[in-house]
């Protein structure tokens, strides 16, 4: 089971090199940054020519991955299942990384066996990590975007002409606050758990560990005063936090050594997590079997025998108290 990257279009099995960064994990930047827009005009980055259309676009995702899970959740939240098709890769990485197969989906669009082949279809000399999600354009036979935070913005608004779901998860009047919360959550929670789990020195580990729990303490306090991260309305910021919270007690607490407290030990975060899990359409996007098998069986540098723990007992369907905010 292999983590790796493409170098000049050739797959190389290797983990992130932390020797040059003092043992600190540094996340790379996705390279495909085009945007789908209602009329095909260029978005905030990349080139134009990607107008919203029914059936033109396709998502490649892993249900195991919190970054890809964001896009699966937004596809459900915005009622886009009939507009944007989707294939799920296997939870356990093979010798060449993310792969299609019997434990998930075949590649229904390009007929490939490995996700890295999707990248080299676009650029035969591609160099970089091969990550999910991937937003694919069936018409132009190219990758539109592989940055999850940008894909969910597209799903939030670009396809409004094709869906009756009008909830805006990035409303103009809250964008400043959403962006500020996103920065806190990304650096210290979404990516913070990876900085902790992938640290290769004690100093780097402790630095990231303290960032994770400092942020969780702040977020729990914030949720003691209001129902959602940016007030009375649920926003993109909540869904970006949700996919990490969901995995925390089952994976990050033990596998990534984020073991000061569980989410279950935070009164507000734990109730909030249950509310979001119970949001219409969201539970169907969650696959704990895929999540646990991916982390414990694909990351053998952290778990050499590939044993998947049977616990913990998690009940996301239990009642929550978030209705007390009205």
Description:
There is one protein chain. This protein is of the alpha+beta class. It folds into 2 domains: 4-162, Glutaredoxin; 172-325, Glutathione S-transferase Yfyf (Class Pi), Chain A, domain 2 (Up-down Bundle). Helix content is 35%, strand content 8%. The protein has 9 helices and 7 strands, in the order βββαβαβββααααααα. It has a 4-stranded mixed beta sheet with strand order 4-3-6-7, sandwiched between helices. It has a 3-stranded antiparallel beta sheet with strand order 2-1-5, with no helix packed on it. α1 packs parallel to α3. It is globular and about 50 Å long. The chain starts with a strand and ends in a 28-residue tail after the last helix.
Number of strands: 7
Give the CATH superfamily of the largest domain: Glutaredoxin
The gross shape turns out to be globular
Biggest β-sheet strands, sense, barrel: 4 strands, mixed
Q: What is the CATH fold-level name of the largest domain?
A: Glutaredoxin
What structural category do the secondary elements indicate?
alpha+beta
Measured between the Cα atoms of the first and last residue, the distance is 48 Å
Please tally the helical runs, counting DSSP H or I stretches of 4 or more residues.
9
Strand content: 5-15%
One letter per element, helices H and strands E, the order comes to EEEHEHEEEHHHHHHH
Provide mean pLDDT, rounded: 95
- The first-level CATH class of the largest domain is given as Alpha Beta
The parts where pLDDT drops under 50 for at least 5 residues are: none
- Our count of domains comes out at 2
Radius of gyration: 19 Å
Instruction: Give the strand line-up of the largest sheet.
Output: 4-3-6-7
So, CATH architecture of the largest domain?
Answer: 3-Layer(aba) Sandwich
The percentage helix is: 25-40%
């Amino acid at each position: 089971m292999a983590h790796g990257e493409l170098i000049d279009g050739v797959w190389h099995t290797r983990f992130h090199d932390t020797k040059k960064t003092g043992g600190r994990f540094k996340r790379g930047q996705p390279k495909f940054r085009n945007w789908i827009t209602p009329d095909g005009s260029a978005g905030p980055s990349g080139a134009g020519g990607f107008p919203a259309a029914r059936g033109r676009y396709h998502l490649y995702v892993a249900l195991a991955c919190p970054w890809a899970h964001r896009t699966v959740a937004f596809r459900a939240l915005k009622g886009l299942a009939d507009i944007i098709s989707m294939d799920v890769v296997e939870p356990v990485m093979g010798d060449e990384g993310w792969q299609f197969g019997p434990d998930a989906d075949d590649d229904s669009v390009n007929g490939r066996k490995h996700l890295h082949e999707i990248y080299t279809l676009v650029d035969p000399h591609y160099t970089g990590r091969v990550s999910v999600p991937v937003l694919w354009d069936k018409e132009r036979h190219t990758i539109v975007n592989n940055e999850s935070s940008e894909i969910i913005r597209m799903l939030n608004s670009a396809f409004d002409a094709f869906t009756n779901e009008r909830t805006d998860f990035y409303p103009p009047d809250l964008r400043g606050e959403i962006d500020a919360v996103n920065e806190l959550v990304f650096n210290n929670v979404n990516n913070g758990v990876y900085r902790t789990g992938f640290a290769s020195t004690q100093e780097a580990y402790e630095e990231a560990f303290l960032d994770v729990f400092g942020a969780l303490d702040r977020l729990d306090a914030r949720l003691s005063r209001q129902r959602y991260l940016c007030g009375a309305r649920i926003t993109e910021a909540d869904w970006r936090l949700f996919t990490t919270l969901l995995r925390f007690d089952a994976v990050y607490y033990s596998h990534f050594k984020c073991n000061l407290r569980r989410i279950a030990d935070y009164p507000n975060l734990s109730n909030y997590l249950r509310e979001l899990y119970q949001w219409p359409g969201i539970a169907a996007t969650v696959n704990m079997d895929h999540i646990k098998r991916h982390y414990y069986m694909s990351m053998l540098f952290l778990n050499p025998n590939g044993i998947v723990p049977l616990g913990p007992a998690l009940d996301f369907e239990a009642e929550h108290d978030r209705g007390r905010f009205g």
